[in-house]
UniProtKB/TrEMBL annotation, chain C:
This is TRAP transporter large permease protein. The chain crosses the membrane at residues 6-39, 60-81, 101-124, 145-168, 174-200, 221-243, 249-272, 284-306, 318-337, 344-362, 368-394, 406-436. Part of the tripartite ATP-independent periplasmic (TRAP) transport system. It comes from Rhodosalinus sediminis. Belongs to the TRAP transporter large permease family. It is a multi-pass membrane protein. The complex comprises the extracytoplasmic solute receptor protein and the two transmembrane proteins.
Length: 325, 174, 438
């Protein structure tokens, strides 16, 4: 019989990719493997109230038992996670999600995420430009208002010559249609639900590592997690953590291809910059690394070590990971 | 009693004026940002964050005046028949409840501010600490709670003496 | 008691509080607070929500248009602009029976084309039209009801905040939704004017009459509208020309009207102070209701009442049209108690997949857009249905002499016109869809 009800809260409509292909899978498995002793009530689209940046506090304060959130919505609170937002750093979302989980266990669980129980950590597929006018070189961005999704992405946009505009994802279509912004950065996967191919005609992607990625966590109220009977806690653990993180990152990246296909069908122009063409961008973005490392140092953290560790773990994924969810 | 009431009422008006000035400032910032965007100067960075922080303060600062002038919307169909003491009792009870709620809001807002102070959360673009905005709003929230408590006391006094103290407000029922 | 039962019992409790003259916002707040306490066996969740919820509600960027447009309304009045708009409409319509009320509706429609908020439209036009309606002998309840209904044009005529939210939730094209809303919005204005002429025939005492104005004077009144046109072009041109967001447009509107009022000598230190205090009272009232509604709706969602209720409606196995009508009726019912945005956020994610799965004999996109416009209208009806209708509260609040009950009675004719319009749009989807490109 049902003993525990977990309330899962997030900001996307129930039918969009992350809730239906990742969160529901997680919740269904937890319910099934607990033989129905755990029920996961799902509250999409901020139904329990509040705004997306508050989700992590809702998990910490117990307003929701479990939340899914974008870490970048709360700049300054989880600085170590920003390593995966660095420009041209992540090529494979699965490898980065693997590295994110390992780094979380090693360096973040007891510090930045000490107030909450993290059940999964992942990143989305490569971020890129979707713009009114073609963008091949940084100079094409001169004077263009581009929406960025996190503190670091906004800094990157400034460095490559664009004018960053901060707004949550749901506000992007209206801003694009009204011309309030000239383009946006997001991965392919998000473009289909926001109808971006109808609103812009040009897309710029990069060979090799992507322009940036954003990080996500599935987070649970700590007291609630600790109060679970041991066997139920084991069920939650077995369906969360490393393998789940890799699965989530992989699922999100896999949703890129069909979304890209929609833009192709719409007759839009898709530019894929070669490694050589991308180098100009990488050079322009370099100061982001420098200022990030300097900022971490002010916080008493070794940013370079984090970068190196993340790189090593992404290698390790390719060499040795063979888990499955 | 009347003298204190006039002082509290004056204080509520001052808060409303402050809120109005901040509201005007957010309008000017927005317009300046638009004009800047049309010229070489460029828009004001983080205009939206300034507007949000300013607006939160303004709304909290508007609450005391609404409180002390009975400006909140009510439904009066079912209480029209109440007169004299019974009506005063109902009003005093409601106002006491309102005061309690405003106090709780202020106290919890302070908690929220402390949490943001500890977490170091900043805004996206200007990257100023979010707790600054909370602190500004807290000024208005504390004022609202204080004026709310006074208004409740005044209603209790009205019940006790059976005399009007608070001007007939703009509330829907009046 | 189960969570669901607690949620269901909260309805009578909320009504009881509201009828006991507890301010609406406070009533929703304490019902939500108490409900959360019961569901969670303690106050901690309600307390935890308050750490951020009051601040985030009051700092919501989309909601900042409310005080800006309110202030703009006072400036416009000081600058003689809302009067000019109303007077021009009044010049052409005022001598008809119920004509001044019709003019108010016409002026609301004009204002709605630059404003995405019902509350702001209702509040702004009331400043201008209420005194005029009174002057020409229109009864209090009829006047307030007319303006409350006229105010809904602010959101029925695009641009519209509610449609943007719907577009995002259902992954539909915003521009197409705006386009689809145009004819139903104009129909709404025409419907309200018809409702007025019927009401004054049934209640001849509710409206005064006056002689027609000479044509020269009407044209002069029309010419006096130029500052309105100037702001209108700047604001609307700015939004559609892609220069600013709705909030920026509100700021430009407030700034522009402020300048014009200053030039006309209407804006002085004293009137500025009066504008601030008036804006303060209305804004505080509106935002406290929004805060209370958010608190109560969060509690309701937690108890799963809206979810269970919708499921029960769907599981009856009716025909697609029956399900659609049942859903729209449910919205009307909920609209008696809840605010439109929360209602949309709560129920569209549940109803939309159901509607999409049904066969109405037209393409999926058309069904989605058609349903969106229908939902827009039924949730806006909620703004003027007793007992909880935000527009009713706001307008009634501006008119000390009129009891709420009088407003409630008079607004029913407008609610009737809304329901007729919904029936028309349900029966003939082409009215909504014919403007759409193939
Ligand atoms: Na509108
Ligand atoms: Na209603």
């Amino acid at each position: 019989a049902q003993e525990v009800t977990l309330r899962l809260h997030h900001f996307l409509p129930a039918q969009s990719a992350v809730p239906s292909q990742i969160l529901d899978v997680w919740a269904d498995r937890v319910e099934a493997e607990s033989d129905g002793r755990i029920e996961v009530q799902r509250f999409p689209a901020m139904q329990l109230g509040g705004t997306p940046p508050e989700l992590i506090d809702q998990a910490i304060d117990g307003i929701a038992d479990v939340v899914w959130t974008v870490v970048g919505y709360t700049p300054g609170r989880f600085p170590s996670t920003e390593v995966f937002e660095l420009p041209f750093f992540v090529e494979d979302a699965r490898a980065a999600s693997y590295a994110f989980w390992k780094l979380h266990e090693e360096r973040m669980a007891e510090s930045e995420f000490a107030d909450v129980e993290i059940l999964g950590t992942w990143v989305h597929g490569p971020g890129m430009f979707h713009t009114d006018t073609p963008v091949r070189a940084p100079s094409d961005l001169d004077g263009m208002k581009i929406r960025g999704g996190s503190r670091l992405v906004n800094e990157l946009l400034t460095r490559v010559g664009a004018e960053p505009v901060g707004m949550p994802v749901p506000a992007v279509p209206e801003a694009l249609s009204k011309g309030v912004i000239d383009g946006t950065t997001i991965p392919w996967e998000v473009t289909s639900s926001l109808r971006i191919p109808e609103l812009v005609e040009h897309h710029t992607e990069f060979e090799g590592p992507g322009l940036y990625t954003l990080t996500f966590v599935l987070a649970m109220n700590k007291a609630r997690y600790e109060s679970l009977p041991e066997d139920l806690q084991a069920v939650v653990d077995a369906n969360s953590r490393l393998d789940f993180s890799v699965f989530a990152g992989g699922t999100q990246a896999a949703a890129d291809a069909p979304a890209r296909e929609m833009a192709v069908e719409a007759g839009n122009e898709i530019v894929t910059l070669s490694a050589e063409e991308t180098q100009v961008w990488i050079d322009r973005a370099q100061p982001v690394y420098d200022s990030w490392i300097a900022g971490m140092e002010e916080d008493g953290k070794d940013g370079q070590a984090l970068i190196d560790a993340a790189r090593a773990l992404m290698e390790e994924y390719h060499d040795s990971y063979d888990g499955a969810y | 009693m009347q003298r204190i009431h006039r002082i509290v009422h004056g204080f509520a008006r001052v808060m409303a004026m402050l809120g109005g000035l901040v509201l005007s400032a957010t309008i000017l910032v927005t317009v300046a940002s638009i004009l800047g965007g049309q010229t070489a100067l460029g828009p004001i960075p983080g205009e939206e964050e300034l507007v949000q922080a300013g607006m939160a303060f303004a709304i909290f600062a508007f609450l005391p005046l609404c409180q002390i002038t009975a400006g909140h919307a009510t439904v009066d169909i079912f209480t029209n028949w109440l007169t004299g003491r019974a009506f005063r009792l109902l009003r005093a009870a409601t106002e006491a409840l309102f005061a309690a709620v405003l106090v709780v809001i202020a106290v919890q807002l302070e908690e929220g501010m402390q949490a943001r102070l500890r977490s170091g959360q900043t805004t996206f673009l200007l990257q100023f600490p979010v707790w600054w905005s909370y602190a500004a709003s807290l000024v208005g929230a504390v004022a609202a709670a204080a004026v709310g408590v006074w208004t409740a006391a005044a209603r209790a006094w009205e019940l006790w003496t059976n005399h009007d103290l608070i001007e007939t407000g703009d509330g829907a029922a009046e | 008691m189960s969570d669901l039962a607690i949620g269901i019992w909260s309805f009578p409790v909320l009504l009881l509080l509201i009828f006991a003259r507890v301010p609406i916002g406070l009533a929703m707040f304490v019902t939500g607070f108490g409900g959360l306490w019961l569901v969670m066996n303690g106050p901690f969740m309600a307390m935890a929500r308050l750490k951020t919820e009051a601040y985030t509600t009051f700092s919501n960027y989309s909601l900042t248009i409310v005080p800006m447009f309110l202030l703009m309304g006072y400036f416009a009045t000081l600058g003689g602009m809302s009067q000019a708009l109303f007077r021009a409409a009044e010049g052409f319509l005022g001598h008809r029976r119920g004509g001044v009320a019709m003019a108010a509706v016409g002026a609301c429609a004009g204002f709605g084309a630059i404003c995405g908020s019902s509350l702001a439209t209702a509040a702004t036009m009331s400043r201008v039209a209420l005194p005029e309606l009174k002057r020409y002998g229109y009864s209090g309840g009829f006047s307030t009801a007319t303006l409350a209904a006229g105010g809904t044009l602010g959101i029925l005529i695009p641009p519209s905040v509610v449609l943007v939210i719907y577009a995002i939730l259902t992954e539909q094209n915003i521009a197409k939704l705006f386009l689809a809303a145009v004819v139903p919005g104009l129909l709404a204005a025409a419907g309200y004017m018809t409702a007025i002429s019927i009401y004054v025939r049934l209640n001849p005492d509710a409206a005064g009459v006056r002689a027609p104005i000479p044509w020269a004077e009407r044209l002069r009144a029309l010419a006096a509208v130029w500052p309105v046109l100037l702001v209108f072009v700047a604001v609307v041109g700015g939004i559609y020309g892609g220069i600013f967001t709705p909030t920026q447009a509100a700021a430009v509107g407030a700034f522009g009207t402020g300048l014009i009022a200053l030039a006309n000598g209407g804006l002085t230190v004293r009137t500025l102070g009066e504008s601030f205090t008036a804006t303060a009272k209305s804004t505080a009232m509106i935002f406290f209701i929004v805060l209370g509604a958010g608190f109560y709706n969060g509690f309701l969602a937690l108890t799963q009442v809206p979810q269970e209720l919708s499921r029960a409606v769907v599981e009856q196995g009716f025909s697609p049209w029956m399900v659609l009508i049942a859903i729209l009726c449910l919205y009307l019912l909920f609209g008696c108690l809840m605010d439109s945005l929360s209602m949309i956020l709560l129920t569209v994610p549940i109803f939309f997949p159901v509607i999409s799965a049904l066969d109405f004999g037209m393409p999926a996109e058309h069904v989605a857009i058609w349903f969106g416009i229908l939902v827009l209208i039924v949730v806006e009806v909620g703004l003027i249905t007793p007992p909880v209708g935000l527009n009713l509260f706001i307008i009634n609040n501006m008119d000390r002499e009129t009891p709420m009950a009088a407003t409630y009675r008079a607004v029913l004719v407008f609610v009737g016109s809304d329901i007729l319009r919904v029936a028309l749009l349900v029966a003939f989807p082409a009215i909504t869809l014919f403007l759409l490109p193939d």
